[in-house]
Amino acid sequence: MNFIEGGVCAAKGFKAAGIHVGVKTNNKNKKDLALIVADVPCAAAAVYTKNVVKAAPLLVTKAHLADGKARAVLVNSGNANACAPNGEAHAIASCKAAAEALDISASDVIVASTGVIGQELPVKVITDGIPELVSKLSTNGSPDAAAAIMTTDTVMKECAAEFDIGGKTVLLGGIAKGSGMIHPNMGTMLCFLTTDCAISAEMIRKALLEAVTVSFNRISVDGDTSTNDMCALMASGLAGNAPIVSENDDYRAFVAALKDICIKLAITMAADGEGATHLITCTVSGAADEQAAETLSKSVISSTLTKAAIFGADANWGRVLCAMGYSGVAFDPDAVSVAFESAAGRIDVCKNGRGLPFDEALAKKILTEHDITIDIVAGNGPGVCTCWGCDITYDYIKINGDYRT
Fold first, then answer.
1. Where do the domains of the chain lie?
2. Spatial CA neighbour of 126 closest among 24, 221, 10, 252
3. Interval 37-63: pLDDT, tens
4. Residue 88: what are its φ and ψ, rounded to 5°?
5. If you placed Cys at 146, which of 32, 156, 267, 307 could pair as Cys (CB 3.0 to 4.6 Å)?
6. pLDDT at site 53
7. What residues are paired with 111 via a beta bridge?
């Protein structure tokens, strides 16, 4: 598989656009409405937050995708349309306005929102802005769409790849947003993926769930799971491959590519955590099984004390063992080894559950790098898993202390 340019428009049959319509009232230079459109009907599926409190757009989208079909994605930033007056009515109105402008069925529109919870969506600026948005649709529109779904993100998140299925070149790409309120089981994140692979809606659902499980469900920024999380995938089928309708070799090739794309986007989210100065990669090996390794790794990357230690470039490995200990996973503390690693080198700090003498200056140098790896051996079992997170900084408090205002 080769990573390429093009983002959500890399696959055949897709265009995108992003403009400012006024959902974000504090800065007219910030785009706040995105549209992704397929030239043909697509097989489609989505995965949603596990938060019991779900935003209105998720409920509308879930109903629209009941038939496994879609043609467009409409997303606004700046307002979550969650726990808000007239939430579902406004989400439906947005879909209808987009459908009329595109001459498609409103039930073929995926709708999503991100931003402040509890405030009524200014739906009129959205519906009034859709004609301009449609006029800006382009095969080069992925960056504009990626910019339009950002909230506290500091970088756009998009990627694409090409790979072979049955002798045909298949393209897969996506855009995403996510910086804060992110925790395993999806966090304040949106991800929209497109492919020209010919694949059934049933297989898309299976593939998307597999990919989300090892990517977006393995990142954490701050321990909060949002009301608006959504990851949706549309397939135009224009690549010309034999349609994938079962879990055969072609399906496995598609899933492998989808996982790579989702992991790449997920890591970008973790690295762009609100106020973050470090990307933390935590790999646990030697656990009883993969699930145990995942739980242990998630516990470490979610630990506020571990995150604070990384921020301070403090090789306080006791925070790591502590986080493992309250994870709920059974393991032998006397079999645990811990090392910190970065581009500046590697240092072993714990073996068999006991501290090792180490060079504090070297440890500081290693932990001063942006990308930090915590390498944990939990025993001699077969379980291995990698999760991703970030440090916690003073700026995280500043960003979220006045997020609403």
1. 2-271, 279-401
2. 24
3. 999 999 999 999 878 888 999 999 999
4. -65, -40
5. 156
6. 87
7. 74
Burial of 404 (0-12, 13-18, 19+ CB in 10 A): exposed
Q: 279-401 belongs to which homologous superfamily?
A: ArgJ beta chain, C-terminal domain (3.10.20.340)
Question: Is residue 57 a contact partner of residue 113, using CB atoms and an 8 Å limit?
Answer: yes
As annotated, the active-site residues are 188
Name the residue type at position 1. M
Specify the DSSP class assigned to residue 244: B
CATH superfamily of 2-271: L-amino peptidase D-ALA esterase/amidase (3.60.70.12)
Spatial CA neighbour of 69 closest among 14, 8, 9, 110: 110
State the burial class of residue 357 (Cβ atoms within 10 Å of its Cβ: 0-12, 13-18, 19+): exposed
Token pair in block for residue 184: 């395993």
- The predicted model gives 300-329 an average pLDDT of 96
Q: Alpha-carbon distance 221 to 188, whole Å?
A: 10
Q: H helices of 54-122, where?
A: 56-64, 87-102
Residue 6 to residues 9, 54, 95, 142, Cα–Cα distance (Å)? 5, 31, 25, 7
Tokens of 60: 């509308």
Q: What is the dihedral of CA 377, 379, 381, 387, to 10 degrees?
A: -30
Give 389's DSSP letter.
Answer: E
CA 227 to chain centre: 14
Query: Which residue matches tokens 């997920």?
Result: 266
Q: Give the Cα separation of 57 and 255 in Å (integer).
A: 27
pTM: 0.91
